[in-house]
Write a structure and sequence with these properties.
Number of strands: 0
Number of domains: 1
Bound molecules: MU-OXO-diiron
Number of helices: 5
Largest sheet: none
CATH superfamily: Ferritin, core subunit, four-helix bundle
Shape: elongated
CATH architecture: Up-down Bundle
Radius of gyration: 17 Å
CATH topology: Ferritin
């Protein structure tokens, strides 16, 4: 079993993207914590850990395939946000970019008839559907509940409950 150098590069780029996502969510969690959004802070600390597990999945896969993962440096993420809603909108944007990158890798794997990588990526394809839905649903809450202080407090409570919910066993 071998993967092409093109596939290897794409997977290593994805390691970097997942590491950046993990850092980005860590910055969001920290901002939420100091701003007083305790529920949202917990939610994004959990999300940051999740992204690290995504990164590790790819690191292990590359190494198992004898392709050797490269561990990237990451750029400093944004540390300031206009609002909780803006922050969640940014999270959705990040996930949409990740989805695009995953789909691109699937296309490479299929073109190269790399069945191992194609099957490996299936989990990520499904995960991205969940990730985007999760943030879209959260954004809907601002329309449904409101944007005043009480509404945001309610949304923060929802985030606290979501953060405490048991993890998807596949994640
Ligand atoms: Fe690992 Fe949220 O994408």
């Amino acid at each position: 079993m071998k993967i092409s150098s093109k596939m290897k590069k794409a997977l290593n780029d994805q390691v970097a993207l997942e590491a950046s996502a993990s850092n980005g969510y860590l910055a969001m969690a920290s901002w939420c914590e100091v701003t007083g959004y305790r529920g949202a802070a917990n939610y994004f600390y959990v999300q940051s850990d999740e992204e690290r597990t995504h990164m590790l999945k790819i690191v292990h896969y590359l190494n198992d395939m004898g392709a050797t993962a490269s561990i990237p440096a990451t750029k400093s993420p944004t540390n300031t946000y206009k609002s909780l809603e803006g922050l969640i909108r940014l999270a959705l944007k990040n996930e949409q970019a990740v989805t695009k990158a995953i789909h691109k890798m699937v296309e490479i794997a299929q073109k190269e008839k790399d069945h191992s990588t194609n099957v490996f990526l299936e989990w990520f394809v499904n995960e991205q559907v969940q990730e985007e839905t999760k943030f879209e649903t959260l954004l809907q809450k601002f329309d449904l509940i409101g944007r005043d202080k009480l509404a945001i407090n309610e949304i923060d409570k929802i985030l606290a409950t979501d953060a405490a919910a048991p993890e998807d066993p596949g994640a």
